[in-house]
Structures are given as C-alpha cells and as structure tokens.
Amino acid sequence: MNPIQHQKGLIVITGAGQRVGLHCATELLQQGFQLAISYRKLTPGIRALQQAGAHCIEADFNQLDSMAVFIDALAPYPAIRAVIHNASSWQADRKESLSEGQTVLSQLQQDAAVFDAMQHIHARAPYLLNRALLPKLMAGPDMADIIHITDFVATVGSSKHQAYAASKAALDNLTLSLARKLAPKVKVNSIAPALLMFNEGDDAAYRQKALAKSLMAIAPGPDEVLQSILYLLSSHYVTGRILALDGGRHLQLP
User: What tens digit of pLDDT does each residue of 111-131 get?
Assistant: First the structure.
C-alpha cells in the first residue's frame, strides 16, 4: 500500500500488540486508515496486522537508538494524521519493608528503577516522539491529533502503583502543555480509562470486587477507547481535555 495515496491518512499507534491497542489498530485499519504501529514482541496480533497491511515496527522506547529507528521508519510518509500513545507498562512499587540483608542503597536503586521505567515509557517517550513527529503532524492539509492513553489513577493516585500513577499524571500534564502550544493545527487530548477488561487469570472474587468500584458495574471492553478515539478524530473543537472512561468510578471514592 502506497502511504502517499492513502485517503484517510496515517495513524501512528505505539504499543498495539495486544488488548486495547490491538483492538483499536485492527478497527482503524478496517475503517480505511493507514497504520504504522510499534511493538516490542512479535505476537499473533502483530502478524495479523502485518497481513492486513499495517506497517509494524519493532521498537523499545526505553532506548533512544531504538526510538530513532522507529522514527526513521516513518520517513516515507509525508504527513501523519494522528499519533496515539498507547505503549504502557504496569509496575508495582517495591514493598516498603527492607528485606534481610538489603542496604539502603539497594532499596533506593530498586525504587529508582521502577520510577524511571514508568516515567520513560509513559512520559519521556511520548514527549520525545511528539517533538520528533511534529513536522509530519503539521504537514497535512487538515487538523491532526495527538492522543495520550493515560489512566484513571492519574487523578486519584494509587497506593500500590505510585510511580505508575505519577507517570500517567505527567502525561496528562503534557497533554495540557501541548494543546496550548499546537492549537489550532494539532488537537491534543488524553483518554483516561479505568477498568476496561479483565485478564484470563482473574478469578470471580476479584472480578466482583473490581466491578463494584464503578457505578456502571461493567467491564465495557476495548471498544470504549476506540469510540473515544473516533470522537476525538472527528471533533474540530475539542483539545486539551482528559476524557475519563471510568464508569462513574470517581463518584464511588470515599
């Protein structure tokens, strides 16, 4: 497929190998967008996207040389319609008690490793990619979009995933800064989901407890994110907003 002749333009999605990212990539491809996606591990989902015509690029955004390879791979495309930052990692904080024989230095190193990893994938990588790809976002004839996939916990915090929540909050703040800077040519928004779907290993007790946290009491699935993306792509006016997909969970907090 010739990217120059593609009618709906190019959408770049980071982290599209599974779950929400894979669903959105598959559906956007079927709707006529050209797709370039990043992945870290070759999965059946990536193979299916390749067969369907997506440009799939292996990249580790923790490494600047790998990020540069990803950016260089987009050189044939004269313009980008949208960049969707979905690449993510969910690491828990270290348990606060010192284990036997552990030094203060090793404790600091472990905490720093988790914090740095979360900031790198959720804040640094989008910041760097947005800056590198901005000329292509500005090059198209119409509005372009940057969409950050953040998280409900960015606004309420997390007791066990503090570094993760802080990194997603940083990404929400980046949304605000970029929206101010890039309007009116590029709209910049966040989509902040809470629970969307379960993992196969989640037992009934966990599912019941998790569902009770929202007013809607369902796990709506990845299509909630897709529909939000389509809404933002079609809007001519919405920018600098954090679109919460939380089922009213914010009203359930004590």
Answer: 999 999 999 999 999 999 999
In the sheet that holds 186-193, the strands lie side by side as 55-58, 34-39, 10-14, 82-85, 144-149, 186-193, 242-245
Q: Could you tell me if 107 and 94 are in contact, meaning their C-beta atoms sit under 8 angstroms apart?
A: yes
CATH topology of domain 3-251: Rossmann fold (3.40.50)
Indicate the burial class of 157 (C-beta count within 10 angstroms; 0-12, 13-18, 19 or more).
exposed
Question: For the chain, what percent of residues have pLDDT higher than 90?
Answer: 74
Pairing of strands 55-58, 82-85: unpaired
39 is known as an active-site residue = no
pLDDT in tens, 186-199: 999 999 998 887 77
Say which of 164, 206, 231, 237 is annotated catalytic. 164
Closest among 81, 164, 90, 181 to 127, alpha carbons compared: 181
**Three-class DSSP category at 11:** strand
Domain borders along the chain are 3-251
How many Cα atoms sit within 13 Å of 224 on the Cβ side?
A: 18
